[in-house]
Amino acid sequence: MTTKKLAWAASLAAAFLSIGLTACTPDTDIVPSSKAPPTAAEAAEFAAAAESTLMDLATRAERAAWVRSNYITDDTQAIAAEANGLLTAAAVDLAGKAARYDDLALDDDVRRKLNRLKLAMTLPAPPDPAKIADLARISGSLESTYGTGSYCLSRSDYGGTASDQDCLDLTGMTQIMASSRDPELLRELWTGWRTVSPTMRAEFQRLVDLGNEGAQTLGYDDLGSLWRSGYDMPADDFAAEMDRLWGQVKPLYDALHCHVRDGLAAHYGEALVPEGQPIPAHLLGNMWAQTWGNVYDLVAPADADPGYDLTERIVASGMTEIDMVLSAEGFFTSMGFDPLPDGFWRRSLFTKPRDRDVVCHASAWNLDQVDDLRIKMCIQPSAEDFVTIHHELGHNIYQRAYNQQPFMYRNGANDGFHEAIGDTIALSVTPVYLKTIGLIDDIPDESSDLGLLLSQALDKIAFLPFGLLVDRWRWQVFSGETPPQQYNQAWWELRRQYQGVAAPVYRSEADFDPGAKYHVPANVPYTRYFLAGILQFQFHRSLCEIAGFEGSLHRCSVYGNRQAGKRLNEMLAMGASRPWPEALEALTGSREIDAGAIIDYFAPLMDWLDEQNQGRNCGW
Ligand code: X8Z
Ligand code: ZN
User: Fold this and answer.
1) pLDDT digits 0-9 by tens, 158-168
2) How far is CA 520 from CA 78, 146, 198, 470, 471, in A?
3) Is residue 134 included in any domain, yes or no?
4) Higher model confidence: residue 118 or residue 379?
5) Of 501, 577, 579, 612, which is most buried by a Cβ count within 10 Å?
């Protein structure tokens, strides 16, 4: 994502933060003062002037946000909050002024731009300078609390590399969670990380109140309703569409859950992992139990070993962090995309600095909205981070592809598209491709496809309910259905309902577990990742068809295929200029999001899971 990118949607990236230019007040006074009735020509001029004002402020805000995220101090936070406040003030003001044209018949393009003025903000503030400043400060503070979080272990025999009296940051904790099979250590890490978030509660509550007030000023019921309105369809239809897609993939998730629980029970014992109950959330190899690929060895099919472990191969090959990024760039250039600009290599953050606090959560930026592309990531030599690098470069490639569009359209067709591009490319990181780039020596034969599919499902299928529930929780919070005194309880009800996982230790309202997931303190909407989880398979299937690939989808790689690259670029270059079904149609020929491709991809695995699960007491 582009992280905090703005408060504007997806990736406009980081744009909507704030810059602190004390003496500078945005010029939003661009509505004619005459009492004459509004005209379509005036609306077009207004839209153009608004774009220019916002692009300037977004660029300043993004620069301040970049510095803050790379160097978290009280001062950089203040500077970024100020810039963010200026941007928010201008955006809210302009969105209000656009109402003057509500009843006019306008050119489609002008109407679309005026609508997007409101929808581009993920955190609008009420038009009150004190509240704007407060919200900008709070949103920066929450993200910084997350970014600087750490936990000091009560023991030192965990085999990790913590310094400073065994105090670990999230990167260090993540590394141990990925490989440890010691349930007590895992439980301590799980609870330890969650000590960073209780202090966020009061600020988060204030963010909810002010964000709701801002959304209401713009005419929405609450902030969740504003978020759901950004998909070229009524907000309620969007929520129903997500339910429809979840219904399509849920049988696959249920089958995977059943098999994984059985494997964990075999390893840890039925007392810790009882049949018919949710899986304890600390045993799945990931801090949030959102992807499960790290427990592959506990649930692997017998006789279907792919014969390599990508993390081991990356380490053994001696690849540096930059080599990993070069390799991902090489995939895009093989399809005909231009190499990344020099500035990308000079300005990006690839590794965690030893001497200062940074926001390590991976993000992709375009600071001048043209081609000042960068990523910011604390890369570890792992298969997981190799995929994330492709994910981030997908954002950068998208950002550059739409940089000829007017500013209001420099964004994904919707935010799910933005999240899906790099993941789509990563689906082409197949054994054949890995051999081509020299990371493995032998291509495993087809008998090990099941192992590869299971490993892929542990990340891609396991993620889907998590991708859905984070915003189910926020939507309930924003609407008031979940009041502050039930924040944590409601979170765990959703975790149980959608994912079938449970906290390993007692949780109460003294905890604030949603705050231990980056996107909550950073106020990044999350349904986009669920959508991307489905879309990436649909995109992959179409690219493979365009490339003329015949065979099982999971064996297809579009590496080196310029025709596939050209068609992908055509969709990307549209940005947000047209409703997303048109962008989807440009690549896939269909205007509907469809889980058919992900279901086809995993069909052989589903058959196998059904066999394995016979006689097991599935569900929770
Ligand atoms: O936040 C991200 C990206 C940046 S947009 C690293 N992702 C989600 C997460 O980490 O929770 C990618 C997958 C889901
Ligand atoms: Zn992303």
Assistant:
1) 655 555 558 99
2) 21, 10, 13, 8, 9
3) yes
4) 379
5) 501
Report pLDDT digits (tens) over 173-189: 999 999 999 999 999 99
CA of 596 to the centre of ligand 1 (A): 23
CA–CA gap between residue 238 and residue 235 (Å, rounded): 5
Count of Cβ atoms closer than 10 Å to residue 323 Cβ: 13
Tally of structural domains, the chain: 1
In a domain, 119, yes or no: yes
Q: How many whole angstroms separate alpha carbon 394 and alpha carbon 413?
A: 14
CA distance 6 to 29: 22
**Contacts of 280 by beta carbon, 8 Å cutoff, 6+ apart:** 272, 273, 501, 502, 503, 504
**CB-based contacts of 98, cutoff 8 Å, min separation 6:** 46, 47, 50, 114, 117, 118
Q: What is the pLDDT of residues 521-557, one digit of tens each?
A: 999 999 999 999 999 999 999 999 999 999 999 999 9
- Best mutation site among 382, 386, 419, 499 for ligand 1 pocket (most ligand atoms within 8 Å of CB): 419
Name the pTM for this structure.
0.95
pLDDT digits (tens, 9 = 90+) for 477-530: 999 999 999 999 999 999 999 999 999 999 999 999 999 999 999 999 999 999
Q: Which of 7, 11, 4 is nearest to 405 (CA)?
A: 11
Known catalytic residues are 361-362, 391-392, 395, 419, 519, 529
Kindly list the distances between the CA atom of residue 174 and the CA atoms of 197, 280, 421, 611, in Å, as whole numbers in the listed order.
17, 17, 25, 33
**Cα four-point dihedral sign 59, 322, 378, 462:** positive
Residue holding tokens 């272990």?
153
In short, whether 1's Cβ falls inside 6 Å of ligand 1 is yes
Which domain covers residue 116, as residue numbers? 7-146+200-220
The encoded tokens of residue 414 equal: 């919707």
Q: 58 to each of 85, 196, 205, 239, 341, how far by Cα in Å? A: 11, 30, 26, 29, 21
Query: Distance between CA 58 and CA 486 in Å, rounded?
Result: 36
Q: Is 492 among the domain residues?
A: no
Q: Residue 561: CB within 6 Å of ligand 1?
A: no
Contact 28, 53 (CB under 8 A): yes
Asked whether residue 90 is assigned to any structural domain, the reply reads yes
